[in-house]
């Protein structure tokens, strides 16, 4: 289950990030079953579902409950930039219909499934991996979102509420529209579509291409 520690995306910037240094890791074999752990640690670790893969399933009761609780928390906290105001209002209406709140997050499996399905299938940005990106001058593109349905070009706009802004979708392309993706030069992404080409620039170009290629390959197998 891909995870992310934050709900809000990387702050948008038109400047490219410095390339990451290559990392090498080694898997050390466990030789002793004993282990040490922290007790009464002053911190907590939060794991999040960030993006669905084409063959992802949430049929297991634990997976379903974790997804449900994540969506419930993010909807009621009103601090998640991945949820639009309209999406939040509609989800709150679904919560009210089923008498759900953070103090009493008890729900049947059918209600949990309805909540998760609504967020997965109708929310535009929530279950997406976000990459800082820029387009040509005048396009306003600041972020590229990759989800199980395709890619979206986003920018940050001021919300109607005083605190923070919200993500606005500029263009949407489904995976059926994308023929293939290339990297003509460093930090440059070229999306070859059936009727046009989309050029973006991102320091995460190789990560974007790998993810999009994997999704297209998986969808062909479905």
From TrEMBL:
Q: Where is this region: Disordered?
A: 1-20
Q: Residue ranges of the Unconventional myosin-XV-like domain?
A: 50-127
TM regions (residue ranges)? none
A Pfam match is MYO15
Protein name (record) = Unconventional myosin-XV-like domain-containing protein
């Amino acid at each position: 289950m891909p995870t992310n520690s934050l709900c809000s995306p990387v702050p948008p910037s038109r400047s490219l990030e410095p390339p990451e240094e290559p990392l090498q890791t080694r898997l050390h074999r466990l030789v002793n079953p004993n282990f040490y752990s922290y007790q009464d640690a002053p911190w907590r670790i939060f794991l999040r579902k960030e993006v669905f893969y084409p063959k992802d399933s949430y049929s297991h009761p634990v997976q379903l409950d974790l997804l449900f609780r994540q969506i419930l928390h993010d909807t009621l906290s009103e601090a998640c930039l991945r949820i639009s105001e309209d999406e939040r209002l509609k989800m709150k209406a679904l919560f009210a219909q089923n008498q759900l709140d953070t103090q009493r997050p008890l729900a049947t499996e059918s209600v949990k499934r309805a909540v998760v399905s609504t967020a997965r299938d109708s929310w535009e940005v929530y279950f997406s991996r976000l990459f800082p990106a820029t387009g040509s001058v005048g396009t306003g593109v600041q972020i590229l979102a990759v989800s199980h349905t395709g890619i979206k070009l986003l920018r940050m706009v001021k919300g109607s509420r005083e605190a923070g802004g919200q993500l606005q979708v500029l263009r949407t392309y489904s995976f059926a529209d994308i023929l293939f993706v290339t990297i003509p030069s460093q930090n440059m992404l070229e999306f070859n579509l059936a009727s046009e080409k989309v050029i973006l620039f991102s320091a995460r170009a190789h990560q974007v291409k790998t993810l999009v290629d994997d999704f297209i390959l998986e969808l062909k197998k479905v």
